[in-house]
């Protein structure tokens, strides 16, 4: 009896320490941005801007015109082209960080390849009171479309800033177009 | 008298407690020294053979030299180019452009700028390579005028290892490790691409 | 054996009081530790924020961050088809302390009553040419600071903004320099003319 109590206390202490060590948040978790979740078509409000994903299109090639030349972007996977509308609420801002979190946890950062097309969201300067539309482009493997989440934030490393998470439900049922064309008036 | 035995007991427990810690520290130091004193020999692989460098799975599928074409439209085509074809697969969980530091040439480095990476498929510039999407890329080095083109090229692949918590911030990251492998490629001179 | 007895004896009153005092002091000590750790960060935040407003009446000049500032004019350059207006705001600054003036960052913005801020934006080349001016394009705050003007010189600073037409009436220019923060200047007059 006299050995049981200290032994039990020791076991309990070791257990508590083990649990604390396993669940201690890492640096990346402590400085994680604050997530605001929503669905396709839903308007979400964050710290510096509001945003809404208007539409998603899937295609094998992306075609656009820039500086008078026709550019074609090819991929081994699938292009997912998102059109979003956004408005700054407190200050002029540019939204440059977007990534697709696949169901297996992998993060596909938005493609920088169409960087000469002026309609891309990352090239838009959002002013308070003036909503704007822009495009975000992802290059994805075919099997990571279903159950994905699009994460949009002001910058890539945004500790404690807002990060919008749009759940892409039903994306895999969208038709896969041969060519996605971005026209001049988009 | 009881005071002295108490002191002796305390000393003994101090020594016992310190013993475990000293053994642990000594062991880790010894192992580190041993590992550093016996570097693993560099593995040589054949062309097209895939190598796991930690963050990337890479295979070198060919090398070549393309002399300058003064009348070409593109800036790169107007240079002498020494190029290596590589196939990369991103094994990590996020898109990354760290593939640029994987392949290095075993040549005297004077005068060689960092290579340009292009997609083999359509010649477009590569930015990030995405997880689980293998891509054929071409790494092209501008070759200085008048310098002799080597017959064979040794390409060394650097390795990286992933730490869930690093030593400074406890943040996850990829860190340099020993070179994973090297491959010897014959250099074929080709016409314009 | 005597040690075992000593270990099992009740705690003396003195030890009990010390333990209680230590427990009571704990919240204060933790608070003190927090203050000591974050003191520098708090100071840094104070120096970087635009917290305290100093109003400048129409036509007046104000001494701020090593220079005397005055709002010269605001020009509504053009209206864009998306409902926005392009405004060019021009200041003059007479330098008193060149080192304080040259410390970046230098922020000029248009702010409305609710605290929304419009930061400078580039005018399109077509709009720039449309300005009915023969003078050279005045420089922005950042580029003037880099040239490190001497004490006593008078410089002209201009910044262009894009903002909704509805906000033109309310928006007022504000100037904020590193040497002057947490204070910032807010000019009462916008007087957007042609």
Number of strands of chain B: 9
Q: Report, as a whole number of angstroms, the end-to-end distance of chain B.
A: 94 Å
Average of pLDDT of chain A: 89
The outline of chain A comes out as elongated
Low-confidence runs of chain B:
none
CATH architecture grouping of chain A: Sandwich
Number of H- or I-type helical stretches of chain A: 2
Biggest beta sheet attributes of chain A: 5 strands, mixed
Spell the H/E element sequence of chain B.
Answer: HEEEEEEEEE
Oligomeric state as shown: heterotrimer
CA distance, first residue to last residue of chain A? 80 Å
The CATH class of chain A is Mainly Beta
Residues in helices of chain B, as a percent range: 10-25%
Note the total helix count of chain B.
Answer: 1
Number of strands of chain A: 10
Fold-level CATH name of the largest domain in chain B: Immunoglobulin-like
Compute the average pLDDT of chain B: 87
Percentage of β-strand residues of chain B: 35-45%
Largest interface chains and counts = A-B, 22 and 21 residues
Keywords (chain A): Signal
Organism (chain A): Kumtagia ephedrae
Protein name (chain A): DUF4352 domain-containing protein
InterPro entries (chain A): Immunoprotect_excell_Ig-like
Task: List its traits.
heterotrimer, A: 186 residues, mainly beta, Immunoglobulin-like, five-stranded mixed β-sheet, 10 strands, B: 193 residues, alpha+beta, nine-stranded mixed β-sheet, 1 helix, 9 strands, 36% strand, elongated
Overview of this protein structure:
Chain A: Keywords: Signal. Chain A: Residues 1-28 form the signal peptide. The complex is a heterotrimer of chains A (186), B (193) and C (194). Chain A has 186 residues and is mainly β. Helix content of chain A is 13%, strand content 45%. The longest helix of chain A is centred in the first third of the chain and has 20 residues, at 4-23. Chain A is elongated and about 85 Å long. Chain A has a 5-stranded mixed sheet with strand order 1-9-8-5-6, with no helix packed on it. In chain A, strands 2, 3, 4, 7 and 10 form a 5-stranded mixed sheet that branches. Chain B folds into 2 domains: 1-38; 44-189, Immunoglobulin-like, CATH 2.60.40. Chain B is built from 1 helix and 9 strands. In chain B, strands 1, 2, 3, 4, 5, 6, 7, 8 and 9 form a 9-stranded mixed sheet that branches. In chain B, a hairpin with a 3-residue loop joins strand 2 (51-52) and strand 3. The longest helix of chain B is centred in the first third of the chain and has 36 residues, at 2-37. The N and C termini of chain B lie far apart (94 Å). With 194 residues, chain C is of the alpha+beta class. Chain C contains 5 helices and 10 strands. In chain C, strand 2 (61-64) and strand 3 (67-79) form a beta hairpin. Chain C is elongated, with a radius of gyration of 28 Å. The interface between A and B is medium-sized, with 22 and 21 residues.
